[in-house]
Amino acid sequence: MKVFKFGGASVKDAEGIRNLAGILSKEDGNLIVVVSAFGKTTNALEKFLLEWLSGDRADVFPEEIYKYHKLIINELFSDTGIVAGKLDETFTLLKEFLLQESRRDYDFLYDQVVSYGEIWSTIIVAEYLKACSYDMQWIDIRKSLLTDDVYRDANILWNESTPIIRNIFSFRDTQVYVTQGFLGGTIEGKTTTLGREGSDYTAAVLANMVDAESVTVWKDVPGIMNADPDWLPDAVKLDEISYKEAVEMTFSGAKVIHPKTIKPLHNKNIPLYVRSFLNPGERGTIIKSDAVLKRLLSSGIPA
Ligand code: ASP
Ligand code: MG
User: Fold this and answer.
1) For residue range 190-209, what is the model confidence (pLDDT) as tens digits?
2) I need a surface site. Which of 15, 110, 182, 201 has the fewest CB within 10 A?
3) What's phi and psi for 146, nearest 5 deg?
4) Distances, alpha carbon 211 to alpha carbons 204, 205, 208, 254, in Å
5) Which pLDDT band holds residue 220 (cuts at 50, 70, 90)?
6) Which atom of ligand 1 is found nearest the CA of 199?
7) Residue 287: DSSP 8-state
């Protein structure tokens, strides 16, 4: 079983979601698909939250964000009835939350509001896959990936979450699960987030918990480069790097993958592929342990 992660840049419009479906159609094994908020939705929600907090009207509505998701739906579906209904339901929940919420703890509010980006994206992706006749289930990760209540930077409760995650992603009735990156939930049922760009980390955590064979992060770059191409035009894509090198690169500012992603994978020797969403036929970069690399190289098998 594999874990695929699609970031906001990969699913920023209808075309991106069709492309995602195309990538999945080439897989025949069990898959967990982790999806971020569409495009720049998280930034837009952050902005919206600040506006809401600074204003005196409780009834402001994220109109532009709503229109953006509606536009994608209109382009993707010939019959928008079900998906538009689900989207409207969740926008109503957000509206109700804002009307009732008096607590002014910014980090708490942030997680309750900004998390909707991933809820909307996964509802739309899941409904689209369903419309394409995929055997698929949508999972609300907020109920299974339990965290502490450090809002905006929540820590995974590994012991509590692992059995729940294993049970939820059992593949008993389906081959494909679609779920949200970046989100978790407290034992009391409040939504948390794992830190900006945290969906890569979600993919790694789930892979660790279910003992996945690999994680693939689908990105809008060909893989991991040896330097920033904006600074060094001769930068080349790396075919293989070790976990250790990957950690060093994420901390040196090469923002290709989230720094927390490597450890849960390294602990279980699960390889991480960084591949191009635009050219899915290309190999991208593989990140794995030195030992595995050395073994493969000495046996002459291309890694
Ligand atoms: N949507 C969240 C963010 O933009 C999480 C992620 O993309 O990984 O930070
Ligand atoms: Mg994002």
Assistant:
1) 999 999 999 999 999 999 99
2) 15
3) -85, 140
4) 10, 10, 5, 27
5) confident
6) 8
7) E
